[in-house]
Each structure stands twice: as C-alpha cells, then as structure tokens.
Fold each of these.
Amino acid sequence: MAGVSSATLEAWAIRLLRASFFDHTYANSSCGLRWGCRGRSAGGILLRSGTGSSAIADCLAQPNGEAGIRYGRTGVCHQIANRILHSAGITVAGCGGYIGTVAVWGEYGLPLWPELQACYSSGTVLPASSVAGGSAGRPWNLSGSSGVYDAPQSGMELTQLTEFLVLTEGALGHQLDEPTRRSLRKIQRDFLRRQAQLVRILDLGVVAPEEYLDQLMRFSKP
Amino acid sequence: MMDRMRAALGEERFNVVFGEAGRHPEGLVDRSTFMNAIASERAPSR
C-alpha cells in the first residue's frame, strides 16, 4: 500500500461531455497518488480539499481502486471517491447528480463497509471529521436540521435514508415539514427495496446486465 | 422514484435538490463503465 500519514486529499469533478448531468468524480493526494474511481483522474473542477492520510485512502481504495464498490450496483464514482476521501473528512458533495446517487446508494455506497475499520485499525490517524466535528465538506449549516452530524461521523453510523434527507434539506437551506419527510423516506425506501432485488437477480443471472440497467432507469425515471 | 419525489417536493424544490440530473436520471450509471465492470468481474482470474 502506498501513501503517507498526512497529506492533502482533493475531491475533483469532471463534467461529462456527453448529455449527462451526473459528473465523474475522482480523488488525488498531494503525495502524488491518484484514484480515478473507474474513470479519468485528471482535469475538471476542484470541489474541495482536506488533510488526511493518503495511506488510509489508498488502503480504502483497494482492491483495484474501486474501494469495494461494484459499479452501478452498490455505488458509482461518487461513492468510490467518498470512501477514498474519508480520512480527510470531505466528500464530492456538490458535483452534478450527487443527491441523486446518494438517494440510490448513500454517501459511501452499499452495503456496509468493513474495510473502513480495517484500514484505520492499523494506523493512529483519526478520521478528520471526528477531529474537526464532521462537516464532511458540506457548505451549509446543519445545526438544528437533523442532529445526525452532531455526533462524530463514522459514515457507518448514518443510514441511507437520513443521509438523503440531510442533503435535501441542506440544498433547500431549511428543514422540511414532517409529512414531506415521511413521504420522501417512503419513496426512497420503496426504491431501495426494488433496487436491492434487482441487484440480486442480476447476480443470480436472472437478468442480463443490459436489462438490469434498463430496469434501473425505469425505476428512477421521472 | 423521481416522479414521486417531484410530487412530494413540488416542482421548484425538486429542481433545487436534484437539478437537471433529476430530469435525466439515465446518466445515473455510465453504461460503458458498468459493462466494463461486469466484464472484469466475470473474467477468469489468472
């Protein structure tokens, strides 16, 4: 594993030239490491940077720089980058399509993330978010909004439903009324169950990859 | 999902939250990256 205990980690976004409103994201480190997150690892817009361990980042990126994410099934490049950037306490929040992918896979992807503990256990570096209070690169003030970020953030402590609601309320700049929150939770929960079932039947070979994608798009279409 | 989200949030708030991506969720997964990922997982390990 490469990397050093303290480095500047950066979150980058690339607007795709094709007609997509979902940016590609990747991460790099001041020590020279780059993680393409299944795509390009140069150019684009710097979203934010933070101090973290590139050694932990590189550990979390394994295997093959995919950080344990099965692309299109348990996350996409947004979730891969977020996992790699974890020790710096930053995410790729704000890139194109971010809230949409978080609605489907959460900020750190699915399922649970055992590598997180394993990569930290051998080092002495705490996640930056635990040290600094856990803004994770979010530009808005969440105090009084949800409370979930008041506790030290491990990423694993946050449920997918809560992550989505927090981001939604952050984008709106205010808390939603309770009936709307309940509606969004139900919509997302229904979707997640269908999505999980779809991944299962893909893994079993019941549907072909092309059919999986088509069905996923049908679920999510407006 | 997105149509229900739009109904729950209303048009204006939906646009603020999801932006253009909300109207074009087909970009959620890059098809070629996905197919490459599937192919690499199914390739026999050496």
Amino acid sequence: MRLFRYLLISCLCAPWVHAAGVAVGDNAHSVILPNLPDNGATTSLVDLRGKVVYLDFWASWCGPCRLSFPQLEALRTELGPDGFEVLAINVDEFEADALAFLEETPVSYPVVRDATGATPADWGILGMPTGFLIDRQGIVRKVHQGYRKNDGAGLRVEIVSLLGE
Amino acid sequence: MRFAFVLCVLGALSACETVQPWEKGTLSKKEMAWEPDVMEANLRGQIHASKEASSGGTGAAGGGCGCN
C-alpha cells in the first residue's frame, strides 16, 4: 500500500522534476561537441578556459538569434584580441536548416551542434536564445535569456568588465 | 487505493509531453500557426469585434523564444 502511495506521488510530481541547470556563480559544465559545418573535429569549452566566453544556444527558427549573430560577431571582432570568444551551440533538429542560417548570417566564431538536446537540457535552457557569459576562471557570471536589438551594448559593458578582472 | 493506482497508471499512459524550448523548431513553422496569415487574421478580428462588440480571446501562448 505504501508502495502505491510512493508511485502515485512520483507519477504526479514527474512533470515538475527538471534538471537543475546552470546558474550564475556555478562552474560551467563540460561541452564537447562536433563542429558545424561538420569537419570531423570537435570543439571543447574547456579549451577556451582563460578567455571570457559567451556560450550561445541558438536555432535557425529563432528570430532573436538572427538578431544576435551580427552583434556577437561585432563584439568578438572588437574584443577578441583582449581574450573574448563566442561559442555558439546549434540545437536545430535538421543540420541543413542550421547551415542555411549560417550561410545567410556568417560568423567567424566557432559553432558546434547538438542534435540530441542533451546539452541544452544539462544547462537548463528555458528559452531560445540563451547565452551564458563565462569568466576566465570558467564561472558563469551572467545568464542572458532572449535577445533584443539593443542588448549588444549592455553585453559589451559586462564583457569589458570581465576582461579587466 | 486501487483507484489511486488506476489513476497513476492512466497518468503514466497519457501521451502528454512537455515540449522543451530547443524542440520548438517544428512548432514554429508557418503551417503550425493558428493563423498563417496575420494580416487577414487581424482584419477578420476587427470585423468580428465590431459585429460582436467584443474582442480578444483568440491568442495562444507558444514559441520557444517568445518570437515565433
């Protein structure tokens, strides 16, 4: 009887049980994913340790992602020499959609792909796009959900501040 | 208790699934929208509001990023 009670409670609670995700102050979780376009190699977040990294989860169907790419590219061009890097994680179901997006909106920063959804689940993504600003020590300092047209200026201030630490 | 068990089994059998934000690619396609033609929907909405003296109640939440 007690077993049934536990079963009932666990069944009712199941929809509300989520992975904890990554929050401000946490250590960045490990990310090792194949490059996009696929060249047989992978890119790892740990390899970027020592740099200020903006980890950007995006998809081709997401409107604000289209807005964020040119701004992130400009930030990376300007602040890259000081130690800023962007790592974009594509979560599209079909690789062709992501490649078409990249053809329209080309960027010079590394783009990787996770078609399984394991990485966004691990990081606790609540909406698209979501960006994590990670400092030189690998600690998440800001979680940026969504993207509006003036967000680049605010991000720049925070990135410059982290680069100066 | 038997009723609770049946309820539990029925709950587990249901096809309800939470669509995660990164899984909304198909949902964001044009053919998945309630109103594929926004302009026409607005026009119809205006006519409906003037005829019925009431408006609203036609929206639906959706979209992983609040955009589509």
